[in-house]
Input
Amino acid sequence: MPTPEEAVKGTLEVNKQYQDEIKIVINLVTASLVLPIVFLKNILGLEPAEIKGHLCPMAYISWVSLGISLFLCIGFYFFSTKFTKALYGLYEEKEQERHEKPGTIKDQTETWRDWMGVAAAVFAVVGLLSLLIFFVGAL
Output
């Protein structure tokens, strides 16, 4: 059975790995935001004035999905930071003031962190699939 210190260290390592995965999502999503314009301009050879007329609804769906994914990634980092602070016991006084059982804030922030991460990944996949449909339709 791990000691409490070892358990916290292990939990922090897992949290760090989640953060590394979300960094990948952020990089992928931000790079994908410009793809419809680059595709129309460089691959199809359209002039800048013609680009807006060739953006179909799938490009807009992609941008909205990718934007939501970025927003959720920011939320993930927010709750990940709060979770780390809770692991170190920085909210114990607040829990006592609110007459909550110890660890309530840690559990809540962990839940929100996990949901933000999953939702960010789902919206990223929706955005990328929308991009793929846009590319196929534009050819």
Notes: The chain has one domain: 4-138. The first helix runs from residue 4 to 32.
